Amino acid sequence: MTTADGLLSRLAGLDRQGLATVLAHRPDVLEEPWPRRLDVVAARLASAASVNAALLGLTTPHAQVLRALQLCHALGSQPAPVAEVARLLGAEPAVVESFVDALEERVLAWREPGGVTLPELLHATNFRPDGLGQPAADLLGELGTTRLAQLSRAVGLPADGRRAELLLGLVRFFRDADGVRELAATAPEPVRKLLRDMAEGVPEINSVTPLPGTPEAWAFEHGLLFATYYGSAAMAVEVSLALRGPEHHLSFTPSEPACPLTQVGAEAAEASSSAAALRLLDRVSAILELAAAEPFPLLKDGTIGSRLIKKVAKDTGGTAEEIELAIDLAVQTGLLLVQEPDPPRRGQKAAPPTLEPDPDVVRPAPALLHRLLLTTWWEPARPDTGTQVRQLVVRLLARLEPGTGITGADAVTELATWHAPMLVTDEFAGQVAAALVEGELLGVFAHGAVTAAGRALLAPEKLVEVTEELVSRARTTALFGTDLTAIVPGSPDARLATLLDRAADRETQGTATSWRFSPSTVRRAFDQGVTAAELLGELGGIASGELPQPLVYLVNDVARRHGEAQVLDVASVVVGEPAVLTELAAHRRLAKLGLRAVAPTVLTSTVDAAGTLEALREAGYAPTHHAGDGSIVLPSREQAEPKVTIGVQEATDRPFDPLDHADRLLAAPPTGPNLHRGQLARAMSDRYAGRLTPKQQQLCWQLEAGIPVDVVYRADGAEPARLVVAYPELDGAVLDVWSLDDHGYRRLELARIDLA
């Protein structure tokens, strides 16, 4: 009987709540397409991928109890008595029982008369993490009959039986701890010391060989050490445990480690969360604007260089960590796309690929953008170990009361290690620290405490409400000072930040953000086509009071001078008032332009229009750029109207509750017919009077192989529906298939199916 067959009988004996508990602990078995029956559930539960996923979710004491069960199985106790497991762990049987119950709920172990049984995939033959080697049965099984007879004589057992009898007798001998200790006590002193050292945690060493006449040869002759194929000396598990003594126990830490807590306060945590979320939204918006103006070049390995990260951080007033996270999430959400350059011409160097905004994607509203960033960080398209670590950290901290956090990344790492020992690698501490830093930037954490945004990731139905609340806290007005500054206490919303960035330069950012106006920044706004009246109106609309007179004077003064000289694209011609052009022609700093008067109101330049504009502005003038027909040239800002809207999967689209699946599975028969190769093609052949085209035959074979296929279904009284179906089962004249469009099973009559 296979593990899947054994599981099927156990699953069939569960009630609704018991089956739902199993499904809740092993959610991967409910991935689409949902299992039709319990036999499919059993097969998925018995698969290596599902078992490995379940192991990653075990806490330290669960893993330790499972390890003790594996050791008992390796030592011949099948099923393993709970009392024996408790003895190995040095714990009370009642304590171990509770962890066995939890393993049984995850179908990683189950009870039988006399003890606990493990699935085949969890039978272990190596226990190096516990400082133990291989079982004696495995080491002895590699020996021939002659060698087994020699060992039997050496330990005082009969040596005249068959190989199986010799092997069984030796295995029983080595599983007798008292007998092994008595044998080891007769070894020479150097050998006893070697055996004690190896038993303490080094089950295999390379410096000992069974050379005749050496003290170590005694250990090999009596089976306390075995020579391996690689030339090393190995000690059996039974020998190590016997030499450690009856008082030795395997590691067992049933209690969660205590962590230092800090009281942040729920209101303070939510305020920090809102500020962090709005700050990151501002960074993402700024990055999209910068990338639209000048795409970001990528390195050869397809990553963003550190120099570019620092430059963008300086331009946006953010930190390197904020910029890296913002760019990474913008790429994952599809807001930024990698554009490959055109092939270079012969002799030219290939241009690097670049990152730039997708012109077809509509910029999401602030609340939607925050949801998009959160869900992408929480469930990326390509999850890895880092994804599992961040989800673990959020779940652990979410157990605390709102406003309560854990002090320090080291304490969180220790707690996470206890809760997920199977996830621990050399990078684990760094992954925990990265999860905390990124979570703070996204507003998921605040000073070590989980915020409402973090808790909403665990309850997706609340995500819309929480993100709308966070974004609503953004400031929509600014305080304008007479020193030509604008200050926004708190976090500005996207519209406010965009308007101020266009007409002023950011100076500081933190609990408050400040901008400073200058002639060059105001001219920058005018260069983009804004008039003085429009700019003053927009600034007045975001001011908490009246605009100060110095700012109004500055805007009007720059507007008066703006366009005092005009640069044309026709051979770079400068047009303006005679007095201004005379001054320009005589200006020493503009000598490099080679300005020459061809008329009282016209100067020619030897430099192109862009260079002439830059030189005039550096000299303190405010020229405007005009085309050859005299029309003003504005910076290229308008893009094609985007058509694609990015959305977030709503909570209603998520899988059903395990109880719903339990009801459905228990109502269905536990087993069903298997679809054999060619069976579907024969059934469809009857539908088409025995004439299937090669293409139709291929589609039938694809369906049988689990590959999705397009079909057209013509139901009574309805328009023909085009469906994408897979995973078929044949039930007479009905085809039961999984519909990728409906995310559910459909029963289609063969007579109404047209193969596309």
Describe this protein with a few key phrases:
hydrolase; 13% strand; 32 helices; 5-stranded mixed β-sheet
List the helices and strands and how they pair.
Elements (H helix, E strand, L loop, with lengths): L2 H10 L3 H10 L12 H8 L2 H9 L3 H15 L7 H8 L3 H13 L4 E3 L2 E3 L18 H5 L4 H10 L8 H12 L2 H9 L3 H11 L4 E2 L11 H5 L4 E2 L5 E2 L2 H8 L16 E3 L2 H28 L2 E2 L8 H11 L3 H13 L3 E4 L14 E4 L3 E2 L3 H13 L6 H13 L6 E3 L2 H11 L8 H15 L2 E2 L2 E2 L1 H7 L4 H10 L6 E2 L4 E5 L4 H10 L1 E4 L3 E5 L2 H9 L4 H11 L6 H13 L3 E4 L4 E4 L1 H9 L9 E4 L2 E3 L4 H10 L5 E3 L17 E2 L12 H10 L11 H9 L6 H11 L4 E5 L7 E11 L2 E6 L4 E6 L3 E3 L1
Parallel strand pairs: 10-23, 18-22
Antiparallel strand pairs: 1-2, 3-5, 4-5, 6-11, 7-9, 8-9, 12-13, 14-15, 15-17, 16-17, 18-19, 19-21, 20-21, 24-25, 24-28, 25-26, 26-27
Q: What's a quick, concise take on this entry?
A:
With 756 residues, the protein is α+β, with helices and mostly antiparallel strands.
Can you walk through the features of this model?
The chain has 756 residues and is α+β, with helices and mostly antiparallel strands. It has 32 helices and 28 strands. The strands form 9 sheets. Strands 20-21-19-18-22 form a 5-stranded mixed β-sheet, covered by helices on one side. Helix 1 packs across helix 3, helix 6 crosses helix 7 and helix 9 packs across helix 10 (163-174). The model has no long low-confidence stretch (mean pLDDT 85).
